[in-house]
Amino acid sequence: MSNPPPPWLAPQYAAQRARTLDLVQRSIAALKTAGHPVTVWRIVETSRQLDPTHRGISDKGILQNSEARACYVAARTPPRQGPHMPRDRSRTKAPAIPVDDWAALEPSLPPNVFHAPRTWGDPSNRGRWPAPHPKVTRYLAHAVLAYPWSVHLALAAAVISAKRLDPTTIRSYLVAVNAKMRALFNALGIETMDQWHPAEAIPAYLREELLPQDNTRTRSNFWSNYSTFQKHMRHWMAGLTEEERERYRPYLLPVVEPWAVEGLSKVYSSYEESKVARKQATDAVVPYFADLRAEAHRRFNRISRLRQAYRQVLTEAQRRGPDAFPLTFSLDEPGADGAPVERLHFRLWDRRSFILAHKEHWSPLTVDEAARRRGRYAQLEWPTHLLVEYVRADRLIDAAPPEGLWFEDLYKLNLVGEGPVLGTPMQVAEKQHYLRSFGYGRRPFNPVGGARGIVTHRADLGTNQFHRFARLVAAGTLLPIDEAYAAAAFGLLALDLFTTTGMRMNELLQIRISREGFVRTETLAPPGAADRSPRVRWLFRLIPKGERSDRPADYYIGEETRRLIAKIVCWLVRDHYELPPGEGLPIVPYDPHHGRSHRFSSGPYLFQHDGRAISDDTLGVCLRFLLHRMVFYTRDGKPVAITPHLLRHVFATHAVQVEKVPLDVMGEMLKQKNLEVTDYYSQPTVSMVASAADMLLARFASHLDVGDAITRTPSEVRQLYEEARGKVGALAEVIGGHCVQAGFCPAKFACIGCPANAVDPARREQIERRVAWLNEQCAEATRLGLPLEVATLERQLRDCHTMLREMEQIEQYREDEAHGTFIAFDTIG
């Protein structure tokens, strides 16, 4: 039996028990009124509908609450004998061992299906057609074989797997169709595929005449997945002989012609709505593209100085001994000129000193143990059980409000981890309202996938419960310094890569610091260059989304990104893992919960922590943490939350619309095969269109052609590449920085303003000389009355000044990074 809660928590526990009992009673009454059976899972689902916060209660909460359990037991409906649909009971039992091999399904499938042409079971197969992946096989064996449509879905899975589609995608198709087929068969009261007439059932379902509880998106997704199976099977059947088509037609899902659902499916309209929403969010962020990157670097520098100060304070506390706590200290934050502008005040506690300072909140026995240094307080808890309390920030130079720490509210209001859904209904509602004001979801700062020591206090130290209690009584805000630093470090690295390469999240997670994954290349100096030393470039080799083979693509990075990667790797190896000098990152398995985990083996992944690869959800948490309170709004006033996918849209829009990168080249940079998708990513935003219209009306001297982009032929690209060899791309230095675009030049050798030009402040003089020359040419063109030439020169001047601003921002955060950490001890009275 579990120990009773501490006395000061008794009211909170009593309120939770009362809430559970109330929801159970109301749910049972609602189920009986509707004529539904009373079961645990129905009570759980109904409670979510009755609860204003939609949290509801869990089955565990019902069964562990004695009063709620008794109420349920008294009202529950006895189980019925037999399911709704007669089944072959021998086929409904789960296999005794996991079914990972497609061959294990042979006894459960007709021979014609298992040995279907142009699939793995084809007798003529000599390695041309792969077998379905174990995750597909397992799902079929455990969730599909018991139903009348099992053979139809198994054949479809074998055919689509032979086309080498991603296994996670195939499984998602199966899950969507299988689940909804079960629901529709039950709703229609049918039991066999002969009774299934989708030409009538699916239109009725899309008209909301069946399963009224389903929303529009669920209905559209079912039709989308069902029609996807139809498309693949139609292509497969086209390659068979007439005799084979007759043989396999009974094993195909009955066809529904597109005209039968015309106007009923909301797939296209839903997709168009999401596209509009994405472009509105892109429109809000694009104007602040450079500022976003600079502010992220400045924030990381601030948390780095705080962590450095924290480590110095630990050394001082260790020198002073067990009676050093609480130890107060202050940290001075510098401005642009290096002079202090703010002073941050902190206290360092151990658990013993914190209890003694807040003894009214602890039991007399705990206070006595702490005072006498008995039990867990007999020795110094070093350093994992120490607490850092952020007290306040003081402005030193003027009367403006201090900036402080951008993430303080997340810990003060308990918005990290599961905090947003913990507390009374009123507290949860207040937290959710606060999060929605930033455009966040329900639990935006909850790292998942086994992430420990990122954002939240480490779960393996047994201190989470103590921190939860201490947070409520502390005068200031308790901060996990190392955990916050880890989140900011991974967030900054992800942001830098998203905004300089345009890579996707799943490509980012593949990055390995190894000879094969992180490649250093050297090329000869360009002809005629004064500096004859070899040109060094760095690139990642990653498998893009949609690539069915294991052939990687090259992702070039600039010197600033390489420098940041070196810093993060050094922190992981030296401080986090405490490895000896010369050691590299540990070999860790790829995130097993990721949809593409089957494609990647263990390796020295860059995004790893505590011996585990970081999940995509956790990396999204890190990005939100770093950019918290950087609020962007759409034109209609809705807050925009920064996501990795949104940054990809921002990168593409900025490159195509601002930097004038050709559409087909941007498709290559984004590793997209369909230029229609690239066109959507890079379409001008509403603000861009409005700005262009204003310029047109004001000047009448230039014309912007927004017609369809023209794709260059392969011969033109080859010719351009041959002309660029030794002069452009990843093979040479460029004016104002370093080019990270491989192969051909996207800007037709106009390096100023090109997004592939990673600016280098050391080359400022080159841009300044270009500005002086452009000013002279602009004045001459004005004198000669050449308005179009003036417009062209002015655009180049704007590009030059943009590069100069980027150089200034890099110099600022480098300067900010170089500022020392100034701390003082015993500063709070």
Low-pLDDT residue intervals, each spanning 5 or more residues: 80-98, 692-732, 742-749
C-alpha-based Rg, rounded: 31 Å
Quaternary organisation: single chain
Number of helices: 30
- Quick one: overall form? globular
Give the structural class.
alpha+beta
Report the biggest beta sheet as strand number plus sense, adding barrel if it closes: 5 strands, antiparallel
- Please state roughly what percent of the residues sit in beta strands, choosing from under 5%, 5-15%, 15-25%, 25-35%, 35-45% or over 45%: 5-15%
Distance between the termini: 46 Å
Report the mean per-residue pLDDT as an integer. 79
**How many strands appear in the DSSP assignment?**
15
Helix content: 40-55%
User: What's the arrangement of strands in the largest beta sheet?
Assistant: 4-3-2-1-15
